[in-house]
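To illustrate the input format used throughout this study, we show a single complete record. The first block contains the structure-token representation of the backbone; no residue identities are included at this stage. The design step must infer an amino acid for every position from geometry alone.
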């Protein structure tokens, strides 16, 4: 039987750092959307920069490495992981839509669409990261080498 390659703790740490960075951007975006106008459009431009290539690589790392590892170790997480993957599809589509809307000439109609999209994206990102941290990454801690030396704790949540 093929032995599982040990989990690279640096990858997990990087994913968590990226979550915090995105959540800070989400908070900035929510404040700017509350104010509306040109400030909100400028913040949306900055937000797309935050969701550029490294963010897409973040999603790909989770799909290629983190989620399959979790699925093999904890089959009961199947439903949660399927939901997270569906949300990745949704997130990629929303980011692409955001780029497309920002490329259009400015108009009241475009700005209104942008603000709705920005607010939906902020909401989904908050929820997605929360579920990922609480219901998926909390389980992966058990695969870390030091986990065996810890006293068993309560069962992490499933969503
Ligand atoms: Fe994710
Ligand atoms: Fe993530």
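Output of the design step:
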């Amino acid at each position: 039987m093929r032995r599982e390659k040990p989990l690279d703790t640096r990858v997990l740490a990087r994913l968590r750092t990226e979550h915090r960075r995105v959540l800070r951007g989400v908070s900035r975006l929510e404040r700017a959307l509350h104010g509306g106008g040109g400030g909100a459009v400028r913040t949306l431009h900055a937000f797309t920069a935050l969701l550029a290539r490294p963010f897409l690589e973040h999603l790909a790392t989770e799909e290629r490495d983190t989620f399959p590892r979790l699925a093999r170790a904890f089959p009961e997480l199947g439903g949660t992981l399927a939901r997270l993957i569906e949300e990745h599809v949704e997130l990629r589509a929303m980011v692409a839509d955001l780029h497309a809307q920002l490329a259009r000439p400015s108009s009241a109609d475009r700005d209104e669409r942008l603000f709705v999209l920005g607010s939906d994206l902020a909401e989904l990102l908050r929820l997605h990261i929360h579920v990922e941290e609480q219901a998926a990454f909390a389980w992966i801690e058990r695969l870390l080498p030091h986990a065996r030396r810890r006293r068993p704790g309560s069962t992490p949540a499933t969503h």
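Structural context for interpreting the output: The mean pLDDT is 89. The pocket of fe (ii) ion (ligand 2) is lined by residues 15, 19, 58, 62, 132 (CB under 6 Å).
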